[in-house]
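Quick start: read one record
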Amino acid sequence: MRDMTVGKPLPLIMKFALPLLISNFFQQLYSISDILLVGHLLGVKALAAVGAAAPIFFFLVMACIGFTNGLTVIAAQSFGAKNFEKLRRSVVTATFLSFSFTIIFSLSVYFLMDRILILMNLPQEIFKDTKDFLQILCYGVIMIVCFNFLSGLMRALGDSKTPLYFLIFTTLLNIVFNVIFIYFCKMGVRGSSLGTVTAMSVSVFACLFYIKKHFTVLLPHKQDLVIRWNFCKQHLIIALPMAVQFSIIALGSAITQTICNKFGFVTIAAMTAAMRIEQVAGQPMVSLGIVMSTYVAQNYGAGKIARLRRGVLQCSIVSFAASLFLAMLVFVFGREIVDVFVPKEQPELVGEIISLARTYLKISVVFYFFLGQIFIFRNSCQGMGNSVSPMVSSIVELLMRAFAAIYLTKIFGFVGLCFASPLAWIGGALVVAVGYFRTIIKISKKIKKKRDNSCGY
């Protein structure tokens, strides 16, 4: 466990971020291994099927993870305030709420699967494979959410290394199970989703065993095993807007995918490869954002607002430098990186897929700065309990993404689709940055007023 309310902010943040960065790279490797195995073992259409399924699964998982991440905010604040009784009660409450939400939400998506795929203009050539892939994942989404929830609890207490070790273990298991189910058992795209669920299930039980042995501060006492509805309400006030926020982000991706599907499975395959590269490139910024959620929550709970602001500023500068470096890297070596993801079974399609993927990357990399600032300010707001500004930011992202996907594609075709993410990042970053500074000003005024009253002014 790490107390982030003492010590120099930037070295502390970077030390905490490094395991997260490695962890997030393995998280992407987890996803990339699926794409590589499916693409190279099953072909372009299978790759397109998994790519078309990604926004729906992303929507499902992001809503659940957004909800569970919101539930861990009070746990981090309680740890920062050294209120361990409240921390244990928060764990019990968060566990109950996360299980309830995840089961209801995943079942709803499962039974609406056909209608969703039809609404997304999914090509008939890949309809069945996409549906098979998603149905198995719906069965196992509870395990995926449990793994992220348990990792979030460990990070809330300042431990970013242990979740990394479990993620590495899970990634290796995923690759092994994917090879077994896809190559040896000949299960097609269903083998990929079954491998993911199986690997995650093993890791969840390993996490539970580890927490029971090494994180006794999280283990509830008998008197903590009571569901208090007022306390549930406090968690839901933070968690529900975060679930909506994450869902809105995923919904934007679904809209983009729906328009992309109209261009055919070759374009879908190209976008699948490009998006995986973009997700890997964005991991340093994602990691810094996750750190800020814990850092800000602990310092907010301890009442150290000046320290909180200093850490956010320093982290924002680092994020800008990282976004600039990564943009240059993707811009220069984009072709070579894309080539790794493209199946070679149909040589006549390879050139077109690479060309489309490079076009997308050349446009999006210019705007990585805004993406980095979104992660910094959004997580900082959430760490202070402000979930409204991030939600409004997500709505703006959705509207900007939908505008580009629906209207700009009519004018510029595929190039218009490439501007969907950059426009969303610009709008979202501006909104959440304003929300952060307004929250800081409000808190500072409240502290000043309290100090003046205590001095008898």
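Residues 109 and 116 are 8 Å apart (CA to CA).
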